[in-house]
Design goal:
Order of helices and strands: HHHHHHHHHHHHHHHHHHHHHHHHHH
CATH class of the domain at 356-468: Mainly Alpha
Distance between the termini: 46 Å
CATH architecture of the domain at 356-468: Alpha Horseshoe
CATH topology of the domain at 356-468: Serine Threonine Protein Phosphatase 5, Tetratricopeptide repeat
Shape: globular
Number of strands: 0
CATH superfamily of the domain at 356-468: Tetratricopeptide repeat domain
Length: about 475
Amino acid sequence: MENDAVENGQDARPGFWRVRRRALLASVAGCAALGGLLTLLPWGSGGTGAPEPAPGAQALAAVTTGVRAALPDLAVLIDERERHVRAAPRDAESWAVLGAAYVEQGRRTSDPANYPKAERALRTSLKVRASNAGALDGMAALANARRDFRAARTWSEAALKADRKRWATYPQLIEAQTGLGDYKAAKRALDRLVQLRKGPEVLAWSAGVYRDRGWREDAAAALSDAAAGAEAPAERAAYLERGGQLAFERGDLDVALRYFQEAVRLDPDQRAALAGQGRTLAALGRTTEALNAYRAAFAKQPDPQYALELGELYESLGLGQAARVQYDALRERAARAAAGGVDEELVLGRFEADHGDPRSAVRRLRAEWRRQPGIAVADALGWALHRSGEDKEALKFARVATDRQHGGGVRSALYVYHLGMIERELEMPGAARRHLQEALRISPHFSPLRVPLAEQALRELGEPSVEDVPDMDAEPEEESEGKPGEE
């Protein structure tokens, strides 16, 4: 809702040995790491018996520390701050809080109309008092929400210049460095965060870095600890949703579903978890339930990524017209997001590569790679190049997306599948077979459209032959130094 006031204006992994011990205990119990850790979570309210703070106070504590807030509490906080800044327009701190609350509301609802309001509030705060760290933090969070990672890094660094010990800035810096593909810098920022702060929110940010480095058991254990330590239901639900993502990525579908369901029980507005249910139910073959979950998630949080996933699910079922409706919704939501300053080029590039114009996808993703060369962009650009018939260049980007030396070490079935299919097209049967098999080992149900294609490709490749054995005496292929596309 528009408002007049805004219109005017050593090993650094925390608990490393405890994490390792918990992962080992889960293994001894005969469960997957994440599944075993799931049983350690308290599934009740998590309350201590003490009276809960007022909704506005709960949301204030959340948005000023970068954790998830419940949507009804956010609405209360926004209403309070809107009324306050009308009465006290020189209150820089309240403008900063209002801006941060708008950013969080935009993230939770995928409503890009929140972002211009957030920017006006935050810039008003900076106009009232220059270099106040709260507003600079808010600008970093806004840039991350808009997927403008270079701007987010700049704002984060400005906030740290204003206050070097402001721990709440480091999560924004970690997100920005990750989006730019600078995983070493993200790890350094995490190390500093761990020195300054302990608690569930730090464990959750640690889990994200661990996952990007390929330390999935450590990531799962850190998220389990974060969820167990979180007091607010919305915060705990956010950590459970991320735990569900990890479980899905490793093919632990029953565990993933339990995480997503518990997240929605704790916070009915946790639409990412509802979309996660749709993804997992589809993999389990429970198609009707999957469709219902996706529809409900998109109705309340119309994220273009959900439209893409739902469209692909329809397409896998042979429902082409229903898929096209979702693809039209994706384009419409991406256009609205762009009007709010959000960069949706990655999801648009992925969509165009498989369901639209691959050459358009290449153009979009080349520009995105120049702006922010993370491994997700490398994977998407490599695949778009493959779909455009440029397989030699595609291979370079696909290798970046799956190479620990260049990327973050993420074990992604989709990335490895893309690599294998590109190698198959380049008549590299041994490498293609290995990578397609690896994709299905990482997650046997990673995509309703792509898993059947991977299985078909493996059947066509057949069993290994002596020709598949690499020539160890052959000269290696020449590759340019650094990342592909660098001058």
